[in-house]
Amino acid sequence: MFNTEILALAEKVLDLARSQGQMIATAESCTGGLIAGALTEIAGSSDVVDRGFITYSNEAKNQMLDVSSESLARFGAVSEAVAKEMAYGAIAASRADVSVAVTGIAGPGGGSAEKPVGLVCFGLCRIGESPIAQSIQFGDIGRSDVRRRTVLTALEMLHDALST
């Protein structure tokens, strides 16, 4: 299901989290649980993976992660503001010490001039810190490739956060 690059990175993330006694949560929209899936593909991951939130709809983002209706209306679901709120909400609604969130347009449709297919916004939050966000435009490379690259980037963000 997951390629060796993703699994190797997931294992590194788990090892880092384990060595620091850190728990992880994910908040996913466009990946539909693939980040949590990659982490839990590794045997023994339950000691550091607390939970994953699949919040595909705006209602789910609001109800499960407390993403504000105002942010959703003002910035749209695919925005750094919402990605930050998703990451923060995952920390608040879990036992996690670090969370990663993704929201984007995987395609093939759904894009616009302002938010084209392939745009993904990432959020990261560590307990007790303000969330950070970044956006990456992967391009219209196909739904599967956008999602695969999103998983890799999210795992890289977790790895970097746990390495500092």
Automatic annotation (TrEMBL):
Domain of life: Bacteria
A Pfam family matched in the record: CinA
Domain CinA C-terminal: 8-161
Protein name (database record): Nicotinamide-nucleotide amidase
Organism for this UniProt entry: Kordiimonas lacus
